[in-house]
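Board notes (copied after class):
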Amino acid sequence: MNRYLAGKTVLITGASSGLGESLAHACAEEKAHLVLIARNLEKLEELAGRIEASYEVNVSVYKADLTEFANLDALSKKILDAHDVDVLINNAGFGLFETALDTPFETVKAMFETNVLGLIKLTQLFLPTMLAKHSGHVINIASQAAKIATPKSSAYAGTKFAVLGYSNALRMELSGTGVHVTTINPGPMKTQFFDIADRSGEYLENVGFFALKPEKVATKTVRIIGKPRREVNLPLLMNIGTRVYQVIPSVIEFFGKSAFMKK
């Protein structure tokens, strides 16, 4: 239970499915009001109806493509005119598991625009109101790929390394302001993410032991909202591996080569 969330307003991007949807349910269960953003308005409205009926909280939905940067200023003004946003969860993102040479540049560009630049833009837009009231929480969904890059995910890992670096710097800048910054670094999750990232379906089969349920990641995330938590790393065994990698990367890369290629 997280008493901090009761009556607070949480904005979640990429909320129409997967982890975003699970985060919406988990926050609503703690009696937080929701502002949900995604490209699919129909799914958002359907989700909002289910959540309002189940949890008796207010849910507002906004259709938006976070790569259309010119529209985000107007969107944020519209949201802030209607809501006092206490928590921003930057969840929207996608990946593609392909070799660096075979990943189309347009896909790389779209990945960075969605995973990194959209996140930064929204943070810049919603952070001032949090600073003004000396309270708030920015939660950025990164990945274990931000800790250890593997073959066939060069662009995706690059975006998540960027999210982690941005978050770490922002956290230091906001020290003493009352606004917290946390990164959530999950390993592979059983969501629609892999419908795009790995159309063969082989990756989830190969890492089935580590694959997380989005509901578990959402629960772990909700527990730390309002607290000065630096990171949440899941699952435990994968996080241990990434910590070892940071100490002896060449050794892990040598012995883990065959496992890393299972995409």
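Comment from the instructor: The radius of gyration is 18 Å. The longest strand covers residues 179-186.
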